[in-house]
Known about the structure:
By secondary structure, the chain is mainly alpha-helical. Helix content is 53%, strand content 8%.
Amino acid sequence: MPHCENCKHQWSWGTTLRKSFTLGEGMECPECGHTQYLTKKSRKRMAVLNFFPAPILILSGMLFDIHIAAILPFALALFAVFMMTYPYLVELSDENEPLW
């Protein structure tokens, strides 16, 4: 679980998931109110995990002639797994690091 770099407060699973849906780049610490940002490593990890399932599902549907109704449950299951594991993959930093 992530922790605030300012006050070292460890965020809960629910807080991390809730804060990830806020608009903007920073997430406010529930304990001290200091703005925290995803680290460059964490953002790259999330980008990879968000990108790869879609082409695999699309290509498997095209190659094996599987109807979209059969692929949809797998896509929803992958989304649910990603949402459950997302808070464990988050790392926070005091500074907003450039991605590149």
